[in-house]
Backbone:
């Protein structure tokens, strides 16, 4: 219309009133980014048009560092990848070396590894649950979740001597058997923990605000999720049945009876449900492992100096965040020639653009929380 | 496993260094002659040991591409194939689309640097089939400076993995939509995962290779330190 055009031309406010895209910098020091993650979000009003991830602030060169240590000396550094799931990282690395060495880990050690792995998975999911709730505004869940995580940390301290980064496994088996009374305390925890999960679900699953903030938000289809190589609960939330514990069984996981919770819609709520149900399955696995614990050795036959044959191995486990892979190359010497970590957080973070496009800026925080990233693992 | 045995190819330990004053004070005892290494010392090519393993995917690949695809030995019975660079893109899309292979999931993509080999770089694709539950490692060898065709058209998830390999190893992926730095700072020089890159970074290399031939510790005064760094950078 001619009148409006006229008005626009003369208005001094035209420059500021004009609708245009803005670019918003989220992070790297934003509390909702769970570490030093920076997102450049292109916005039209509150609607996300596109986003770009900027990572690498926590790159410590762990893969390079490992090349300058012997195979055993390199073990503890991998705890520092995903520092809320340290036991699982350690399992990935020692498993890869054992595969290359062709060492058979004794059955008892395998079962102990399963118990510690599943406890660590619960602990990692609890940290995720608390902080994810905090991001979306459900503050009280954090206090409940950390209370139970504390019990698991105490179990680790009693068994491994360390709480956060216990350097749990040596190459070839496990270091310690259960201390006296440990199994009873663990069983007590397993008794009360399912009730505690009910408490979390009572706070969140039926909560109207929680459902409105999560259902239909950050949707990714199964096809996109597979194409983007996502893994773990992030992939299973879209309904893809891929869990390394079932697909490529390791450490006697084929002995246990458990289910893989799957989502349907691939939104934040389904990913939330997957993780919460996974905690219940972990409890099931630990109970079976404690009941069927075989007697025997704790370590396989591994020499004092480890020199794997020249060659390479790729070993994957199901870590708390997804498929954790270790690609190790040996040249026959006592030091790794190359160690590459396929970290689930790094690959899962690729999906964030697909999930956030078309959503509101407030939902970006919900999506970052639902991916369960740990920046130590993203940047390595 | 024979762990404690000396490696036959390893060179003899260098004689301990002594300062001239010490050497004058007490004459060094006659040293036993160093044992001659049985095998002439020198860089040995990196090669995998073990045996070639087969699965459904390798069989389908061999049937389609014949001699172009070579099985690689593996010490832990993993199915590994080496493919020529010219056919890589074709083979990768065949692996995804063929019904017998259906490698729809790219688990990992990375590279490694082998300075002693003729072809100095290897890129490894770890593929997995969600339908058939089998996995395969596809490898391709590259010369220094040679580019590799991108896999992002086949698996969009290869995007960040290729950017990472480009950052850390300097492998160029041709046709990648946006091959820029991802883990390193933008102004970073060099590729840290190459074998010649020192663990302590460029500063360590500078200190080691300076004109004095001995370590120089940078002074605390930042201006003076900067002067020394600049002098080294532009001086020699």
Residues:
């Amino acid at each position: 219309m001619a009148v409006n055009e006229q008005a626009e031309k003369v208005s001094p406010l035209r420059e500021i009133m004009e609708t245009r895209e803005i670019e918003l910098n989220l992070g790297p020091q934003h509390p909702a980014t769970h570490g030093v993650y920076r997102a450049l979000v292109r916005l039209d009003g509150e609607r996300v048009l596109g986003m770009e991830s900027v990572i690498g602030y926590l790159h410590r060169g762990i893969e390079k560092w490992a090349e300058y240590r012997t195979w055993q000396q390199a073990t503890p550094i991998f705890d520092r990848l995903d520092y809320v799931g340290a036991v699982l990282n350690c399992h990935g690395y020692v498993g890869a070396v054992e595969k290359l060495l062709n060492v058979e880990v004794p059955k008892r050690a395998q079962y102990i590894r399963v118990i510690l792995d599943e406890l660590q998975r619960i602990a990692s999911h609890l940290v995720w649950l608390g902080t994810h709730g905090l991001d979306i505004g459900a503050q009280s869940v954090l206090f409940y979740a950390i209370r139970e995580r504390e019990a698991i940390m105490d179990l680790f301290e009693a068994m491994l001597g360390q709480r956060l980064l216990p350097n749990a496994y040596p190459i070839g088996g496990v270091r310690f058997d259960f201390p006296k009374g440990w199994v009873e305390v663990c069983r007590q925890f397993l008794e009360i923990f399912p009730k505690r999960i009910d408490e979390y679900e009572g706070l969140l699953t039926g909560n109207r605000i929680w459902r409105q903030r999560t259902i239909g938000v950050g949707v990714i289809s199964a096809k996109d999720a597979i194409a983007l190589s996502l893994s773990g609960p992030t992939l299973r939330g879209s309904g893809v049945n891929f869990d390394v514990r079932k697909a490529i069984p390791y450490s006697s996981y084929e002995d246990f009876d458990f289910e893989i919770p799957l989502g349907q819609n691939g939104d934040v709520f389904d990913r939330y449900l997957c993780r919460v149900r996974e905690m219940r399955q972990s409890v099931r696995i630990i109970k079976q492992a404690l009941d069927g614990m075989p007697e025997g050795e704790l370590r396989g036959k591994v020499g004092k100096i480890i020199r794997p044959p020249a060659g390479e191995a790729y070993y994957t486990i199901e870590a708390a965040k997804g498929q954790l892979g270790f690609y190790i190359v040996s040249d026959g010497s006592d030091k790794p020639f190359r160690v590459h970590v396929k970290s689930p957080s790094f690959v899962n973070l690729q999906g964030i653009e697909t999930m956030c496009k078309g959503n509101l800026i407030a939902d970006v925080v919900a999506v970052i929380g639902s991916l369960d990233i740990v920046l130590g693992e993203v940047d390595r | 496993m024979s762990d404690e045995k000396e490696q036959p190819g390893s060179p003899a330990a260098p004689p301990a260094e002594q300062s001239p004053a010490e050497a004058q004070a007490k004459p060094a005892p006659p040293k036993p002659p160093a044992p001659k290494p049985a095998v002439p010392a020198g860089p040995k090519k990196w090669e995998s040991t073990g045996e070639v393993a087969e699965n459904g995917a390798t069989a389908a690949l061999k049937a389609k591409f014949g001699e172009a695809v070579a099985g690689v030995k593996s010490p832990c019975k993993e199915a590994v194939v080496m493919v020529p660079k010219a056919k890589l893109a074709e083979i990768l899309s065949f692996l995804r689309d063929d019904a017998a292979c259906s490698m729809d999931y790219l688990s990992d993509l990375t590279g490694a640097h082998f300075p002693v080999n003729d072809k100095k770089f290897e890129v490894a694709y770890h593929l997995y089939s969600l339908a058939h539950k089998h996995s395969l490692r596809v490898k391709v060898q590259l010369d220094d400076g040679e580019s590799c065709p991108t896999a992002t058209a086949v698996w969009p998830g290869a995007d960040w993995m290729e950017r990472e390999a480009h950052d850390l190893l300097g492998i160029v992926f041709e046709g990648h939509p946006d091959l820029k730095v991802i883990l390193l700072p933008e102004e970073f020089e060099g590729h840290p995962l190459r074998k010649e890159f020192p663990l302590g970074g460029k500063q360590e290399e500078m200190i080691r290779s300076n004109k004095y031939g001995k370590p120089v510790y940078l002074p605390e005064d930042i201006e003076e330190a900067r002067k020394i760094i600049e002098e080294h950078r532009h001086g020699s």
User: Anything to note?
Assistant: Chain A has a mean pLDDT of 88. The first strand of chain A starts at residue 22 and ends at 26. The radius of gyration of chain A is 23 Å. Chain A touches chain B through 50 residues (CB under 8 Å).
